[in-house]
Amino acid sequence: MLWSDPENEPPKELRDTQEMLRRLSIFLALAMVLAMIVIGLR
């Protein structure tokens, strides 16, 4: 690998978007579990 090769890293905007999507998916998963518990208690 040459020193002049570009780094194999996505641009900052893409990384930020991926991080936001990851947080959103975790939040959605927790919300679904909470909804299941609430529905189950009724």
Can you describe this structure?
The protein is mainly α. Helices cover 71% and strands 0% of the residues. The protein is built from 1 helix and no strands. The mean pLDDT is 88.
List the secondary-structure elements in sequence, H or E. H
What amount of the residues lies in strands? under 5%
Radius of gyration: 19 Å
How does the major sheet shape up? Answer: none
- Fraction of residues in helices? over 70%
Quaternary organisation: single chain
Low-confidence stretches: none
Secondary structure elements and their pairing?
Layout: H1 12-41
Transmembrane segments: 20-41
Keywords: Membrane, Transmembrane, Transmembrane helix
InterPro entries: MmpB-like
